[in-house]
Amino acid sequence: MRLSLVVISSSGDILEEEVDGLYVDTAQGPVGILPGHDRYVAALQKEGKFSIERRGSRRHFLYEGGLLDVRKEKTFLLVNAFRPAAG
Questions:
Q1: Nearest one of 24, 12, 11 to 58, comparing CA atoms
Q2: What are 25-81's pLDDT values in tens digits?
Q3: Is the pTM of this model over 0.85?
Q4: What's the Cα-to-Cα distance from 84 to each of 36, 39, 47, rounded to whole Å?
Q5: Which long-range contacts (CB under 8 A, 24 or more apart) does 10-15 make?
Q6: First vs last Cα of the chain: how many Å apart?
Q7: Which of 32, 73, 79, 85 could disulfide-pair with 63, CB 3.0 to 4.6 Å?
Q8: Any bridge partners for residue 58, and if so which?
Q9: Residue 41 and residue 70: Cα distance in Å, rounded?
Q10: 70, 40 contact by CB (below 8 A)
Q11: How crowded is residue 24: how many other Cβ atoms within 10 Å of its Cβ?
């Protein structure tokens, strides 16, 4: 089972993937979202990072503000902007 992830920025950038896990800095602290996670909504930090895991490797991104919305069928990260993290 995979997690269907959609990341959307206010400028229209979209990242849509089936992943094994999402790890994101929320305003309440870091959280990990795995397939089958219960419904969950959280505000994101003003600036933070998220990582997506797929087949044992992780890709890291930086984001600016937004919202995490975990639903049964999809998980959404709605952010002002995002970009791959250096290194």
A1: 24
A2: 999 999 999 999 999 999 999 999 999 999 999 999 999 999 999 999 999 999 999
A3: yes
A4: 26, 27, 14
A5: 10/79, 10/80, 10/81, 11/81, 13/81, 13/82, 15/82
A6: 29
A7: 79
A8: 53
A9: 6
A10: yes
A11: 24
